[in-house]
Amino acid sequence: xxxxxxxxxxxxxxxxxxxxxxxxxxxxxxxxxxISNRGEARGLEVARGRGLRAVCIPSxxxxxxxYDRMVVEELRQCGVEVVCLAGFMRLLSAEFIRExxxxxxxxxxxxxxxxxxxxxxxxALEHGVKISGCTVHFVDENLDAGPILIQATxxxxxxxxxxxxSSRILKEEHxxxxxxxxxxxxxxxxxxxxxxxxx
Length: 199
What we know:
The chain is of the alpha/beta class. The chain folds into 2 domains: 1-100, Rossmann fold (3-Layer(aba) Sandwich), CATH 3.40.50.170; 108-137 and 149-199, 3-Layer(aba) Sandwich (Rossmann fold), CATH 3.40.50.170. Helix content is 36%, strand content 26%. It has a 7-stranded mixed sheet, sandwiched between helices. Strand 1 (2-8), helix 1 and strand 2 (29-36) form a beta-alpha-beta unit. Helix 1 (13-23) packs across helix 6 (162-186). The longest helix is centred in the last third of the chain and has 25 residues, at 162-186. The radius of gyration is 16 Å and the shape is globular.
């Protein structure tokens, strides 16, 4: 059974969606550890309430490489094979990414490559797009730029605010993150350049 490490910085709703699917038996994996860089992250309480190993490794004031080594060490000790970023608000160092090549997943609230980085929903509204959505991608050394596993579309309504759009996108995030994780665990895909092709 694949051992997953989940990195969070806040509420961890995508982590909960993954955990629910594992509990329901629709993902053949176990959550080995949940790590947050913020002690107040609600997701840590949720993880402990589910009986999972939940660890806070505070990042404040630490050099990125030093911090990442600490997180990698915890992941290694827990036997983690796949890393899921679920609202983890830190950029990973190249050293971290090399430890888990094509084994780190991230979810982003836009149809990448549109609107990478922070405030993607606000960016979408500012640009007047009619369709937004979310993307699960492999993490590489560039921001929100790794090969795309799955995307889902969400219409942008005339009356939308960043909050209402975010809420509708989040529902799709919860659905496709688990779908992408099932694909990665199955191994039934190959990567050609930037393309992820199901096999």
